[in-house]
Amino acid sequence: ETGVTQSPTHLIKTRGQQVTLRCSSQSGHNTVSWYQQALGQGPQFIFQYYREEENGRGNFPPRFSGLQFPNYSSELNVNALELDDSALYLCASSSGLFYNEQFFGPGTRLTVL
Amino acid sequence: DQQVKQNSPSLSVQEGRISILNCDYTNSMFDYFLWYKKYPAEGPTFLISISSIKDKNEDGRFTVFLNKSAKHLSLHIVPSQPGDSAVYFCAASFEGSDKLIFGTGTRLQVFP
Prior knowledge:
The complex is a heterodimer of chains A (about 110) and B (about 110).
Chain A: E1 5-7, E2 10-13, E3 19-24, E4 31-37, E5 44-50, E6 53-57, E7 64-68, E8 74-78, E9 87-94, E10 103-104, E11 108-112
Parallel strand pairs in A: 2-11
Antiparallel strand pairs in A: 1-3, 3-8, 4-5, 4-9, 5-6, 7-8, 9-10, 9-11
Chain B: E1 4-5, E2 10-14, E3 19-25, E4 30-38, E5 45-51, E6 56-59, E7 62-67, E8 72-77, E9 86-94, E10 101-102, E11 106-111
C-alpha cells in the first residue's frame, strides 16, 4: 500500500507567476485536503475535495484553486503568486467524509522570490 | 484568531522521563482532537486522538488527556525516547468535518 505522495519536492517561482502542485492520495482514499504551513506555524486548511467536488474551503483567496481527478489524485493551483505564498504545502488523504485521521504527504516547499 | 494554541515552542526532556505537551483551545464546539508528530522533510504523522466525550485515551507510551472545562488537552509520553524528538502538533475538528485546525507546534527534544 503506497502512502500519500506529492510532487515536486521543491519549487522556486517569482512573484506573479502561477504554480501547480500535485498529490497522489493513499490507496482507497477518496478525500483529499490541502494545507499551507508557513514557517513557524501550524498547517492551515486551504480546501478539501471529496469525489471530485470541493467540500469546504478555508480562509484563502480565489487564486488558490484545486482539482480532484477520478483516480482521487489532486492538484493545487495558485495564480498571481505573492511573496507570502512561500510555504510548505501539504496534501492529506482520508477514506471518506467525517473520518478525521488524515494521512499526510511529505509536502512541496514553494519559494516565491 | 488562533483557535488552537500551543504556548510552548520547545521542550527538552531526558530519555526515560515523561514528556508533557500542552494544548489549549478556544472553541467549545470542537468535537475531536488529534496529535500529530512531524519529522523534518516528512509530513505530519497521526499519533493519537480523543473524542470530546472522553477525558483520556491511551495507546502504548502515549496518553492524551482532555479537560473540557479548561479547554485544555495534553499529550504524555512515558518513557520518552530519543526517537520521539520531533515537532508535535495539536489539532482539532468540528463534528462532521474533516477540516483540521492546528496549533503552532512544540518541538520536543529527548536527550540521552
